[in-house]
């Protein structure tokens, strides 16, 4: 499965396989569990992380317009304004805007340096350095996609580290049978969450999944996709087990 076709081909994250400079994260509990975990080990006075700020705007009572995301602390935009998405097959992804930000709680790793062919090499960067793509229609942002190098199986913990002490991240589905849009067995460990944070008017929904083998595209990746509405169609199409089942 491609990156939900949300990025319109942007955020090409490298061309050479790399070695992780730190051990992989330890696994989390059963992704289909109904456990709702509050954020822990976050000081009450800690400043909002870039992702918390991003989701605070995204989780407004009504869909936020594109200019609402222009000047968010810690988010660097590659595109000065939303661009048309020629690959879109949905009215909810006709436009996109790409950039980058940093997730907290990671250390330095080896990553592709962005060069191609014989010039391709590696560089050192923080594993939490992620590509960001806003997706929406001509007026409003309707989903957000993040992608970082290296597969991580602790995506619930990663989200909690970003979102402040008053956040709650509840698993709503997991243990999916199929990869999205295929009849092939699921290989991407898709998990779905309901995310509530103090600075958002309404909860948002997150889907996380991994690309285990990067091949010529790098060392694999972890993807985070945020929706304003519960992605029941995706959950059903992949035959995921609901947490309340």
Automatic annotation (TrEMBL):
Keywords: Signal. It comes from the Bacteria. Residues 1-21 form the signal peptide. This is Lipoprotein. It comes from Burkholderia contaminans.
